[in-house]
Amino acid sequence: MSFASEARAEIAACQPDTEAGVRAACYGLACFAKHFDARGLVIQTEQAETAGYARRCFARCGIEGAVRRKDHASGTVYEFKIGEGAEAERMHALFGTTGREPSLQIDPELIRSRSSVSAYVGAAFLCCGTVTDPQKGYHLEFTTPRTNLARDFEALLAEHEFAPRRSRRKGVNVIYLKACASIQALLVFMGAEQAAGQMDTERVVKSVRNRVNRYTNCETANLGKTVRANASAIRALRYLEEQDALGALPEPLRQTAAVRLAYPELSLAALCEKMEPRPSKSGLAHRLKRLEAISAGLRARKEGESP
């Protein structure tokens, strides 16, 4: 089961406690249903939990609907339907609607309390919401073809400080969240606390992984610099050795050359530990630079003398 499916299943398992909450949940299901008009209501979903949630919520309000399973080549769809007649009339009476309104907008009288808003938003998510797996990124969205409803819904989420944004994608209104903290807070608000906790765990894992990667990259870069510097110094010292030039150098430089040739893999700090008296790291680096300069100068003179 995907992360989004797990979140929807968790929300569907939480039934509202109050009459107002149940009505708000039914209202959210109706607003974001595939069809909601004078002929009734149709909700189509790939999850049996969502269809069952809709049936239970409307039943608690005295409205009976039917759930049907439809198997297609592309997968299984569950349909919850309230058909024409007395049930549709009771549904519209519950919301104070007729199904013939020119546009669908949110009636604030039906979601006055915070718990009612929670039930409404959770039901909307069951109908048209999805959330990205936190291993891949942070994105939660709701979609609806109804523009006025999208505007009202964006304002409702903004009123509760979830920082939503709104756009259009292929003619459909999209209300979405991108910030990890906002998505977590909204999941908790809708009743998907385990999904929010999973996001938090994944965020910590990502943070640790990023710190380890940064440290590894830094160490790898430093190691590469050390290897390149060591290789340059070794080449210079071996040239001086081939030219029998090391014996003519001052004692500190002869000692530095001998120790570096004996331990070509060591860092400067480790190389200092092999010398007595022990030089500073910067002092040893300066000696090696001098040796490289002497080697380069000798090589240039030799090449100048060649026919």
Automatic annotation (TrEMBL):
Pfam families: HTH_WhiA, LAGLIDADG_WhiA
InterPro entries: Homing_endonucl, Sporulation_regulator_WhiA, Sporulation_regulator_WhiA_C, WhiA_LAGLIDADG_dom
Transmembrane segments: none
Gene Ontology biological-process annotations: cell division; regulation of sporulation
Superkingdom of source: Bacteria
Keywords from the UniProt entry: Cell cycle, Cell division, DNA-binding
Residue ranges of domain Sporulation regulator WhiA C-terminal in the record: 212-294
GO molecular function, one term: DNA binding
Gene3D superfamilies, sorted: Homing endonucleases (3.10.28.10)
Domain WhiA LAGLIDADG-like: start-end pairs: 118-209
Role this protein plays: Involved in cell division and chromosome segregation.
Annotated NCBIfam families: DNA_bind_WhiA
Family: Belongs to the WhiA family.
HAMAP family: HTH_type_WhiA
Protein name: Probable cell division protein WhiA
